[in-house]
What we know:
Blueprint: H1 7-20, H2 22-47, H3 54-64, H4 74-77, H5 79-82, H6 84-94, H7 99-131, H8 140-167, H9 170-193, H10 198-209, H11 214-238
Amino acid sequence: MMKLEGWKDAWVIFKKDVCSDRFYLIWNVMIMVYFGGMFSTMLYSVTKADEAFHPLADCLMLVLMPMIGFYFSRRSFSYLKEDSYTQMLWYYRTLPIPVKTIMKSRYIQLLAATLFNGIIFFGTIFVIFWIGELETSLSPVQYISFALTWIGYALLMNGLYIHMELLNRGRIYFWLSCVLMLSKVVVSVVITLFHGNLLKYTIDISARYALLSPLMWGSLLIGALGAYWMGFHTMRKLNKRDLI
């Protein structure tokens, strides 16, 4: 299990990465604001029972929601061409930096990105609804419940993305990501075929129970435990990975 030691060094690695990629953080803000504006339209349509947007809304939330767990950097933009994640691991191994410390720094990055991007993304949606005086079935507290429900899903998916990112070459990671994305599209299509709407369901549960929502707490618990388990599993395999 991940113990407490090494968190200081992991924090140093995280701060170094963020400071070296300050320019890319601007892209983070711009992309999250764009996604927030786009999803505000989807959310409004779903709350108004506009069924034409239901399949697209589910698909976009399932595919793009995990992006709040990433922050854009030179490494993330060049992983396919330069296999930047493998190069990073090789560099840390030569210093040497323990695998535990690398994993801890990656999970600090995940939590920081989720907090930063989540506030921008869901904050943008809330501001658009407030400025536009758009009617919604969610109060601010209920909206927080809705946001946390989807953040739990994002944590679970990011645990899987980190697993693929650190254990595979850039090209393999790309194709695995494409397969995972396609599987989400298939899930959204299946939900639609059975006349369901995942986004509307999460809205209804959040509106009914607010911060006592069993779906929200279940999502956060499963997301956190899933991300932790994937991190532990990734760390064990990372010790044996051949980086040459």
